[in-house]
Amino acid sequence: MSNIVISGSGLFIPPHTISNDELIEAYNAYVEKFNADNAAAIEAGDVDALPSSSSEFVEKASGIKSRYVMYKEGMLDPEHMAPIFKPALAGDEPETVTMAIAAGREAMEQANKKPEDIDLVIMGTTNHQRPYPSAAVEVQQKLGIKGFAYDMGIACSTMTFAMINAYAALKAGTAKCALVVNPEFASPQLNLKSRDSHFIFGDVATAVVMELEETCTADYAFRVLDTKQMTTFSDNIRCDGNYTDHNFSDDQLPEDRPYFRQNGRKVFKELLPLVTGFITEQLGENHLEASDLKRMWLHQANLTMNMFAAKKLLGREPEANETPIVLDEFANTASAGSLIAFHRHKDGFESGEKGLICSFGAGYSVGSLLVEKI
Q: Would the pTM count as exceeding 0.70?
């Protein structure tokens, strides 16, 4: 059977940045106004006072220093506390499509691929802007690609799962060359009024081209040696907003229903052992150890989680170039973080040197691809 390679990657960075200082200034102004407006109820014990925050708290808790967003207006307004943008109606191009096309074009350029060379498009995203028609099919049509396309998602592991789907299609012969796009338009899901989560997400899009090794003409490509997936149900990371919400009155739905929320302590305690055990098992199945990897491109949700996982796997503190970090600049970008790290830090490999692309999170889910520079 043919080997499958990653022959190109792409990255779309939104036009606006928000620093921790900017975000905290807006949040604290909102808190001050809320507590003043509800002073009597707070004093009576009927309403809880909101806590203030600081940039130091955010960076210590997450490692995040800034984030990119599609729309900055409204996010820093204490009277609004949400991005301001127009709905994508019939005939409009959703943000996820715009972002995916930009990242996809760069991946195609790196891979030396034209639209007619590709016959499969998969859009993997945590947040789908519409149920149908498929956004992947719109991306396919606007890039001039034939064949077939579909949307998919499994939250934080979506991009690696989508890549594994492409790998399986190529192995099975149902496609010859795949474009996997991964737009994460996550900022609208932020509850900017919550101290615990308002800083977490940024917007971004990544993409890869995957193809048979014999058709690869790229200057720099990675052979996929192994793929592995795992899911086990947990609702410690969740969002409940969905298409049925219009059927219910406001008093039937909690105020935080459409927003991301998590039980961070439980996630740390439960997910990290799953991830480190999963990676150790995958490496063992391939007669490898973590020390045999030149680089691990890990999910970018929290700096402490990444460093803990890398130290557990390596048995020592990781070097900076062994587990590159991008969340300080990009924040948590849902399922895109490991691919941002791969795109930014895939250079410097000699033929035969190996790396691991791994994402993990809500579900719980873990997806991983063991790769080797060709």
A: yes
